[in-house]
Amino acid sequence: MTTTVIDVDGIRMRYGATEVLHDVTFQVGAGETVALLGPNGAGKTTTIEILEGFRRRTAGRVAVLGTDPFLGGDDWRARVGIVLQSWRDHAKWRVRELLAHLAGYYPRPWPVDPLLAAVGLTDQAGQKIRTLSGGQRRRLDVAIGVVGRPDVLFLDEPTAGFDPVARREFHDLVAGLETTVLLTTHDLDEAARLADRIVILDQGRVVASGSPDRLAQSIVGADEVRWRVGDARFTRSTPDSTAFVRDLFATHGAALADLEVRRASLEATYLTLVRKAEVTR
Amino acid sequence: MTLRNGWRRGLILLRQSFANGAEIFSHVLWPALMVGAVVALRGREFGAFSLGALAVPSILGMNAAFGMISLSQQLTADREDGTLLRARATPHGMPAYLIGTLLLVGGGLLADLVIFLVPAALLVPGLVTGGWPAVIGLLALAMVATLPLGIVLGAAFGSARGQSLLTLPILGVVAISGIFYPLAALPGWLQAVAQVFPFYWLGLGMRAALLPDAAVVVEIGDSGRHLETLGVLGAWAVAGLLLAPPVLRRMARRESGSLVAARRDRALQRVG
User: Which chain B residues are Cβ-neighbours of A84 within 8 angstroms?
Assistant: First the structure.
């Protein structure tokens, strides 16, 4: 990790008597794509809204690009891109018209036409925004989010309500962004596909974080190995499947058959974690 | 840069508000009905004057004040669909948003007034022609006195439902503000209520500007009360200008993505 772009340290959030975030801590480095993953109601949106500067935390320390987001001025805003779940503003505007207008607020914006091409909206440039499909609208929102060449981009549930094709196109678009990205999602595949690192939130707490592979390893901790020798079938769980399989070959040689290694999956990790959290609650 | 962005935003919004048949119809309908009304009234006498001629400046004054309602509704709509939050998420977005919205409402208002006034002035006899500079000055004062109030109302009555509740008392005040019949004909306590609000004074100012001097006999105290007009409208302007910026800032500060999403869900429930 080179420089820290997002630094969240012990934030809490309380609405009246309900505490929705308890002591959330994580960091995001420059150029990283990090997913905040968790079931509905885990506190993902509250967390990202605090980072976007739209909500004031109850306690704890937050810095985005070295600034407290709630106090961030216009210069800070110019370096932050935001894509919400539910933009439906400027419905009467035309696609290119709005993007060109908003580009005018930034000191060194992307040229509008290449940006429209990059998000696949060249053919819709002259269309009114309300006539766009859900996926097209969200791609326009991403274009607006990055038009000012932000140093960090926030995406809140970016593919909620997408069909599989739109989802895939959107993933390709986000994967091609050259900026620090923090996204929230309750979709495990999305987190695994897009993120360098995943922070799992549940009940307002960080229950795990790390790369998709490392998370799977450290939580479930074991791969599953199945094999057959003669008529006997075996299944064994092991933290180091490679070494285990090497020993199997050494022991059984050519008698070893139907060998199968199942890596600890992120899905299993996620379910384990959420179940664990629900039991302890 | 903010001024330029706000100006551009206003021009785009204004163009959109005249962009198609339905939009143009909505701009023309109300002024056209009003022209019809004053033309129908021009033959009716009130004292020595044509009721139609009395009504033209009064309606002008009333419509000038209606910019307050359209601004307040615009603000509510922009809050519900996330336009305001977008402005907040953009560097220097709020001032540009404000300039753009004032241009939209102010420009639309002027257009509506011209659509009303030009045919009315041609069709209704008895208006003086020398009053135009005063009319323009008064319109400017009307906007300064009422548009900031529109912002305050838009922020205070946040939902579309709140806005429709708000329209009733405003129409009530308009009804007693001497637009359609002279205030002097009303009971004293209603006169007092009406004179608190800007509608009456805008109508009075317009009548003073556009009617012959002899017409002051229909007014309270047989006077155009120029100084009082300036004083009351000026007081509303100062109050609005003092209140609007902090109220708007507070309203914008409370916006967030989940609030906009929650409102969208409620709106969908209402429809479904």
Answer: 82, 85, 257, 260-261
Residues in A touching B93 (Cβ below 8 Å): 77, 105
Mean pLDDT of A35-43: 88
Out of A210-214, A219-223, B181-185, pick the least confident: A219-223
Tell me, what's the pLDDT at B186? Answer: 83
Residue type, A180: T
Q: Which two tokens stand for residue A13?
A: 């959030």
Of the candidates B8, B90, B261, which has its C-beta nearest A86's C-beta? B261
- Domain A4-217 fold is Rossmann fold (3.40.50)
Q: Can you tell me the distance from the alpha carbon of A216 to that of A219, in angstroms, rounded to the nearest whole number?
A: 6
Q: Can you give the pTM of this predicted structure?
A: 0.84
Q: What is the DSSP string of B36-104?
A: HHHHHHTTSEETTEEHHHHHHHHHHHHHHHHHHHHHHHHHHHHHHTTHHHHHHHSTTHHHHHHHHHHHH
Q: Determine whether the interchain pair A54/B12 forms a contact, defined as Cβ–Cβ distance below 8 Å.
A: no
Domain with CATH 3.40.50.300 in chain A: 4-217
Residue-wise pLDDT tens digits, A58-78? 999 999 999 999 999 999 999
**CA A31: distance to chain centroid?**
13
Residue B200 CB-half CA count within 13 A = 26
C-beta atoms of A77 and B90 within 8 A: yes
Share of chain B above pLDDT 90, in %: 22
CB neighbourhood size of A273 (10 A): 19
- Rounded to a whole number of angstroms, the distance from the CA of A84 to the nearest CA of chain B is 6
pLDDT at A265: 72
Shortest Cα–Cα distance, A215 to chain B (Å): 29
Burial class of residue B28 (count of CB atoms within 10 Å of its CB; 0-12, 13-18, 19+)? middle
Which residue does chain B place closest to A44, by CA atoms? B258
Provide the residue ranges of all domains of chain B, joining segments of one domain with +: 2-271
